[in-house]
Amino acid sequence: MRFPYRSSLVIAGAMSLAACASQGLGNRDRPDEFAVQRQAPLAVPPDFALTPPQPGAPRPAEGTAAQQALQALFGGPAPRSAVETSALNRAGTADPGIRSAVGSPTTFTVDKGTTTQAILAAPEGDGQAASASIPG
């Protein structure tokens, strides 16, 4: 009498656990712990004639967490140096159809030899099986 009773309890428990997994309890929506950001403390404005902010509008003095992270890591946009500005001015603007003109038979190219072709044709990998040989 005990064996059928225990086996029925085990079977019922296994079925209930299987039902929990199929209803998505393992795949529930969780908050992203990296998207949490701190809010600035409240401050009393010096001018009380200000209009209140619109509900749901972003705070004007703060950016998103991603913008704050980029600002902290890289600072603001760096000014270009004189050398970079000079190089950009000499380069000018590219022709909009440059990609189609590169493959044209009338485009002048320089043959770099078989070594460069072999380097460019080499398969990608992690370099574990790489070897060097001196052609002789």
What can you see in these coordinates?
With 136 residues, this protein is an all-alpha fold. It has a domain at 65-89. It has helices at residues 2-22, 65-74, 82-91, 98-102, 114-121. It is flat and about 85 Å long.
**Tally of helical segments:** 5
Low-pLDDT segments, ≥5 res: none
How does the overall form come out from the CA principal axes?
flat
How many whole angstroms does the radius of gyration measure?
Answer: 33 Å
Structural class, by secondary structure, is mainly alpha
Count the E strands.
0
* Biggest sheet overview: none
The helix content, as a percent range, equals 25-40%
- The ordered H/E elements are HHHHH
Q: What is the rounded distance between the termini?
A: 87 Å
Layout of secondary structure:
Blueprint: H1 2-22, H2 65-74, H3 82-91, H4 98-102, H5 114-121
Annotation keywords:
mainly alpha, 136 residues
In brief, what are we looking at here?
This protein has 136 residues and is mainly alpha-helical. The protein contains five helices and no strands.
